[in-house]
Amino acid sequence: MKAIQFDNSYARLPEAFYSLGKPKGAPAPGLLRVNMELSTQLGLDAEWLGSDAGVAMLSGNAFPEGAQPLAMAYAGHQFGGFSAQLGDGRALLLGEVLDPQGQRWDVQLKGSGRTRYSRGGDGKATVAAIVREYLLSEGMFALGIPTTRALAAVTTGETIWREEGHLPGAILCRVAQSHVRVGTFQYFAARGESESVQRLADYVIDRHYPEVRGAQGNVYVSLLESIVARHASLAARWMQMGFIHGVMNTDNLQIVAETLDYGPCAFMDDFRPGCVFSAIDSRGRYAWDQQPNMAHWGMIRLTESLAHLLSEDREELQAIANQASDKFSQCFEREFLGGFRRKFGLLEPMDDDSEFVQAAFTAMTRNEVDYNLFFRRLTQVADGANPEPFESLFEFGGEAQAWLSKWKERIAKESAPGTDRAATMQAVNPIFIPRNHLVEDAIQHANAGNFDPFHKLTEILSKPFTEQPENESYERAPLENEKVQHTHCNT
Ligand code: AMP
Ligand code: MG
Q: Which of 88, 251, 261, 269 is catalytic?
């Protein structure tokens, strides 16, 4: 068996970027799950991860040679208000690993105890939070959305205190391309440490955006535009999956636009553009349809942080900022419409497609249609199925038929064969998503010490586009009494 080999580039940055520190350890660690497929992809030994030595590392009781645990410093706008000092308060970057292709990955423990940035918190995480993040992040990965991953999870054997009472503790081993956030740039910018901003930008370019070195003109302008484009695309893809991140604070907007921080996020059941689940988002700042605005807003904060690298001249800086802002809008529109065309099976772009999509949203809202089932059953109709199951999703049957007639009229204008349409739709409209009530059920059982529903759901969600007749009950929408109205950070 082979222990993890670390190579830590972040630890080679100046000390102001982080605080070194050891994980606090767990009294009675127990292995919850190892992600075999991800360990293989990273060239790690899954058997070692599950061994006593592996669990000792995963629980923070031992760290292997070469690990240099550190908490990263960052700042961030939380619900619009700026905090100059956040940082990893309940996470530690153990180090980085290189996969067989030479790609570098962060390996982080989440929930491993207090750090210099913990403020009032205990630095720990509940089983609920870890089960949630494991299910959601791996579910997102299988859906094809850029995201951080779950490599493994352990229980700590410790009871921790939260508002809801005493809860069991756990630690997630999270893997990401990066844990640098918009807030990491803001941290140095807010302190006026422009050299550190540049140092961080160079690090991000070398590690994540090497292609911008070859671009014409100012590399930092190219960097900004690349980051902006990825965030625009991510926001569009979240919306297409009916995903609501819930806490798009700038400390949670990661620099390569992987979905980061699975707190109060949720997949929407009944469609409503203003849909919000997070119990703390009382004003709907991060509602389903606000996500592009909020990602865009975060990109403007990033632009401000990079300002001195973009131009010394005010007017030129303004022009660069406007251009980045336009780039966001253009990329978002393109990804949004392109993605929804595929979801609706519109293979040949036409002028009125945007209106077509908006009219569908209006009908879906009025009829309280389940978002995911709408696309799933429309896909079946495109594949020749009886339209009745699709129509039954609508509150008002007549509106279902009227909408379906419009859809048929629209696709009749295309020359593409129906089989192409069904195949396109099948590839983008999942059968299984991490629905709130399923996640909640797995969490409740996990809290009581039964992890079987968690394991089963993890398996089902790993093949979201594959029919699984034996798991049909996981496809359906929640019953009225199963509906989860609010999600919590469960930190
Ligand atoms: P979040 O909004 O969940 O991304 O967290 C915002 C900030 O709070 C970050 O700096 C976290 O590290 C910190 N934080 C969240 N939960 C805890 C905790 N249990 N202990 C210490 N810090 C925490
Ligand atoms: Mg966070």
A: 251
How close is the Cα of 154 to the center of ligand 1, in Å? 19
pLDDT for the residue numbered 490 = 62
CB of 335 closer than 6 A to ligand 1?
no
Known active-site residue 383? no
CA 261 to ligand 2 center in whole angstroms: 5
Residue 330 CA to its chain's centroid (Å): 22
Task: Look up residue 242 and give its two tokens.
Answer: 């009916």
By most ligand atoms within 8 Å of CB, the mutation choice from 18, 250, 491 for ligand 1 is: 491
pLDDT tens digit sequence for 249-297: 999 999 999 999 999 999 999 999 999 999 999 999 999 999 999 999 9
Residue 400 near residue 350 (C-beta atoms within 8 A): no
The dihedral sign for the CA sequence 89, 94, 100, 101: positive
What type of residue sits at position 472?
A: E
Ligand 1 pocket, 162 CB below 6 A?
no
Percent of the chain with pLDDT over 90: 95
CA-proximal residue: ligand 1, atom 6 (nearest): 86
Interval 419-440: pLDDT, tens: 899 999 999 999 999 999 999 9
Pairwise CA distance, residues 488 & 491, whole Å = 8
CA–CA gap between residue 174 and residue 245 (Å, rounded): 18
What's the rounded Cα separation, in Å, for the pair 16 and 86?
A: 14
Mean pLDDT of 124-138: 98
Ligand 1 in contact with 183 (CB < 6 A)?
no
85 CB within 6 A, ligand 1: no
What's the gap in Å between 116 CA and the centre of ligand 1? 12
Ligand 1 atom having least distance to the Cα of 124:
19
Q: Give 386: exposed, middle or buried? Use CB within 10 Å, 0-12, 13-18, 19+.
A: exposed
